[in-house]
Glutamate dehydrogenase
Amino acid sequence: MSGDVNPFESLQEQIDDAAAYVDVGSDALERLKRPERVLETTLSVEMDDGSIEVFTAFRSQFNGDRGPYKGGIRYHPNVSRDEVKALSGWMVYKCATVDIPYGGGKGGIVIDPREYSLSELERVTRSYANELRPLIGPDQDIPAPDVNTGQREMNWIKDTYETLENTTAPGTVTGKAPTSGGSAGRVEATGRSVMLTAREVFEYLGKSASEATVAVQGFGNAGSVAARLIDEELGANVVAVSDSSGAIHQPDGLDVADAKDHKGETGRLSGYPSASEELTNEELLTMDVDLLIPAALENAIDQEIAQRVSADVIVEAANGPLTPDADDVLTDRDVAVFPDILANAGGVTVSYFEWVQNRQRFYWTEQRVNEELERVITEAFDTLTDTYEETDVPNYRTAAYVTAIERVADAADEAGVFP
Ligand SMILES: NC(=O)C1=CN([C@@H]2O[C@H](COP(=O)(O)OP(=O)(O)OC[C@H]3O[C@@H](n4cnc5c(N)ncnc54)[C@H](OP(=O)(O)O)[C@@H]3O)[C@@H](O)[C@H]2O)C=CC1
Ligand SMILES: O=C(O)CCC(=O)C(=O)O
């Protein structure tokens, strides 16, 4: 894994790669490569022992030409200004790829949540929500979960916002618990769109999903659900999964639900008794499987690892898991990479459904959510493969960016942003 590749530069390179195929002037394009604004703030929070600890936190609002800024909030020690800028940009092009009416944003706090108590995390989150309050709202900027955040943190943000504003505004944040205005199906949505993308990819490439072997790096919200649904709904053989403790391998196929129970009980995949062996994350990424799903963090596959990837197909569940150099290597090696801005877009798509339900105060069944999600992802997949076939682009990522950039540029143009 390459920690020294700047994800914001990776995003800009991805946009530049597509620019040659898009009818947008270079000055207009330059605007689409930078965030509109970035909040950097210091949270001073009381710890359980009465001491005060300070945390750096960010929110980047990248582009609002297609609608309110939208995107998750990450709690991780490696959160940085450039990471948040990159993640907010990927949100812009993701929302455009699946054609939902949002711009892109992303936030984060530099924190390892495992080192803090529940009450400390609540105070950190409420302090962050206090700083976000002037920026967010159902028509301004709508946060959601990302790495190490979930329903609990979203409920705290909603409550803080509503208390300060003296209102009820559940559409200020998505990914809430259903009892606090969350949508059925949101927890599973990211993994579900990864599964749907994998299903479409197998069909498109004329491969059999039920005979495929699969390895998944990262076993959180995105990875564990993707692994389970690919096992249960596509009948594929998930032979390896990993988390930060390492990878577990079972050539006959893992019982994904059982592995998840083990992680729930022990906090780690390592030590899972039904695995035939334990591997490193790097060994998982270079395993000879039909489908590889990176579902952890950005830069997981760099140029050097890309040369040793043995999978035929990669479906990106994580945001930015390949460095641009790795992308080039995999394109040259004919490994079919289906990009994050399509494959993991289920999360933000069901967040959009949650926001619609919050605004209407009328809630959908899980079946309706899943059916609408399937429609959105399959239509976006078809648009992506049509663009790939009709243009001279080198890979599926560039095809996705061509359509997404055109959509964002059209909205900006129609609004008169470009003179
Ligand atoms: N949540 C969502 O709705 C969406 C998430 N994403 C993206 O999906 C990715 C994962 O997010 P999400 O699942 O929500 O996050 P979670 O916090 O739920 O899970 C992250 C997982 O990645 C693992 N991990 C972290 N570092 C490493 C490493 N170096 N090697 C192997 N595994 C590692 C973690 O291990 P451990 O359990 O040991 O900590 C954990 O299993 C991110 O890129 C995120 O931006 C994209 C769209 C929506
Ligand atoms: O659900 C959302 O609004 C955003 C999820 C997210 O952060 C992402 O897609 O990377």
